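Data availability (excerpt). The following record was deposited with the supplementary files.
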Amino acid sequence: MKANYGYHDGSGDFFITIDSNLCTGCVECISSCPADVLEMITDDYDDVVAAVKDEHRKKIKYSCAECKPVDEQPPLPCVAACEPGAITHSW
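Predicted structure:
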């Protein structure tokens, strides 16, 4: 299952998507996030997967601002750290 976290406003779109079917629970994304946005949760199927913390869900525009890619910048640290490709972003 894919969970989308993000926003759409006058400044554009920015979404982080976490695919719980691909997440292995390795926690590499958590340790790579400079804003401490991610956490591990137990989903409805008792799998431990990455998710955006509740306190960041409504303000991800600000929480992830320092990492938001512009033009051809490298991917977000959490995306780069996720070897199975469970975390993606769009902007």
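Summary of structural features: The longest strand covers residues 2-9.
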